[in-house]
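Open question from group meeting: does this chain pack into something compact, or does most of it stay loose? Before anyone orders reagents, we agreed to write out a predicted structure and look at it together. Recording both the input and the output here so the notebook holds the full record.
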Amino acid sequence: MIELEQEGGISARHQRYQTNQTTLVQGMRSLGFRTLLNDDLHSPIITSFYSPEHSDYQFKEFYDRLKAQGFVIYPGKVSNADCFRIGNIGDVHPADIERLIGAIKNAMYWELS
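Structure tokens returned:
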């Protein structure tokens, strides 16, 4: 509760999470990824992205490459779509999301079309 108060309360934290999510989506789209949901359905909590439509792509390989750089993503278990999820909350700030986008770019071993 002290950390929440120091951050400026619920609305300030919500704004940070929203900024994280917007930064994430913009960065992922710049790398060629597509979101599972339309923008008007996004929440600041977690964002799902379609898996790349490339024959070389394997979630585990992508996961392992990101984990080696200090980031963890989640498989898409909430729909029948081939996707993965990235959390936008916790002690995560926009600079962390920007580092994540760089790590994702480094982890890509396939070419997106």
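Observations to bring back to the group:
The first helix runs from residue 2 to 7.
The mean pLDDT is 91.
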